Amino acid sequence: MFATGAAAQAPDADEAAKPKSAQEILDASPDAHWRALDPANTLYMELDAGRVVIELAPQFAPRHVGNIRALAREGFWDGLSIYRSQDNFVVQFGDPTEEEADRKPLGSAEAHLPAEFERPAAGLEFTALPDADGWAPQVGFVDGFPAGRDPDTGTAWMAHCYGALGAGRDMAADSSTGAELYVVTGQSPRQLDRNITVVGRVVDGIELLSVIPRGRDPMGFYEDPAERTPIKAIRLASEVPPSERSQLEVLRTDSPTFAAATEARRNRRDDWYKVPAGHIDLCNVPLPVREADD
Amino acid sequence: MFATGAAAQAPDADEAAKPKSAQEILDASPDAHWRALDPANTLYMELDAGRVVIELAPQFAPRHVGNIRALAREGFWDGLSIYRSQDNFVVQFGDPTEEEADRKPLGSAEAHLPAEFERPAAGLEFTALPDADGWAPQVGFVDGFPAGRDPDTGTAWMAHCYGALGAGRDMAADSSTGAELYVVTGQSPRQLDRNITVVGRVVDGIELLSVIPRGRDPMGFYEDPAERTPIKAIRLASEVPPSERSQLEVLRTDSPTFAAATEARRNRRDDWYKVPAGHIDLCNVPLPVREADD
């Protein structure tokens, strides 16, 4: 009995002694630490290569998200293209027509919006990282979005990490409408933080955007329009029949599972790593996504 | 005469008042601030899509670079492939055969090398950045390579920035030979610093690697070998006829031009930027390359 008991317990005791990997922490997570995407704030970008799923952030950019919802509802991007792919930076899509008068009409979307570069931090649940950051006084996550915060000014803003969706603009801060959008496909260009309105992030399918051939122009625009990647459609998930929706869940960034998985990445304790970093950068923190169980 | 003089000088005066952009600084740089690549430390990876130019770093990984030179000279990678592409992380190439005994022979390259994760900082010209970094006590550049340094231990190491070339290894620190190599194609995985031997960096043609379709396996390996990207050849530039060499020059990272261009990026003063970041991350610093004049 004793021998059997000892044998049965030994693996558990070993298990307890060995720190869990991020994957083991995720595998053991309770369902309550995950949340489904809100269909009213989810965009599907349909490409020949498949679907890119985007979560919008009305808590940071309500006016832009309002416009993007209207544009998606009215099929603004359908038949347009990804017309820019700059290596280690962004892909950009919308209507590249030079002359504003010749561009596809915005329909019921507003032609002019305020800049939404930052907002009051009050009212946001901000899960701060303990890690130092060179770009912002504090960094962390708000509802799954990587974000910066400044206690002195009381403001918060979304950070330009890999997969961030931003609203292209001209010289004036308030010249974006949400019709021209870009997704970060390279090393996080955090110098853009607070200089442009971030409207969401890619949750799934970023690998369909990151492999798009780069344009030869220094900024990644294509010389030949035939090189552009056609957009079949961009739709709000709420306007797609439920049977055609992606059933995705994202890990809550305010959950103990997220904190534990991030710590397991900050200090890798597996046998492969010889020197744990003792640090993680905001844009290196994985944001887990999974298929929902039926 | 006065009026003419004033008119002629006015643009110069304006010019002096307006801070120069990084591009303007580069355009005005003296030739002495640039250097040609050393053909003995330059690799050409020939793909169907074109040439990737890699600079090796014998000052950091002399034994690995010695092996890589031997492997290139003997055509080790010719006919092998890029067999892994993991989104926002790396592409990896070499011989993916599971059984070591069945792998392509290493020829005159050594079968066992020491780990070369770091080296004494003494003897390196380290151009430090003033910017805070969460991963290393100090960061900067050594001969064009992004690097970290620890004054307490007196060591320095190459950093995993976009384009870094590293030597894949198994569990043991000293299990890399340089035959299996990877290139960083995503957000800089600095947690790998000091955990693996970095051997160089891509200087030109990274956009041929970064667009390679991602493997479906979670680590980016391809299920079907037909999905792999064939490698036509990897050659040392010194073994390629001069007429077939790429004529590239890189900006010296110990030059005043590099310091000024980096400062112009740290604090963007052009009209588009509304909030200069006041910071730049090691892996966000551009490393300019140009075609040499004939």
TrEMBL record, chains A, B:
EC numbers listed for it are 5.2.1.8
Q: What Gene Ontology terms describe what this protein does at the molecular function level? A: peptidyl-prolyl cis-trans isomerase activity
Instruction: Say if the entry is tagged with keyword Isomerase.
Output: yes
The record lists the organism as Lysobacter zhanggongensis
- In Swiss-Prot or TrEMBL terms, this protein is called peptidylprolyl isomerase
InterPro entries referenced in this protein's UniProt entry, alphabetically = Cyclophilin-like_dom_sf, Cyclophilin-type_PPIase_dom, E_coli_cyclophilin_A-like
PANTHER family to which the protein is assigned, alphabetical: PEPTIDYL-PROLYL CIS-TRANS ISOMERASE CYP38, CHLOROPLASTIC
For the keyword Signal, the answer is no
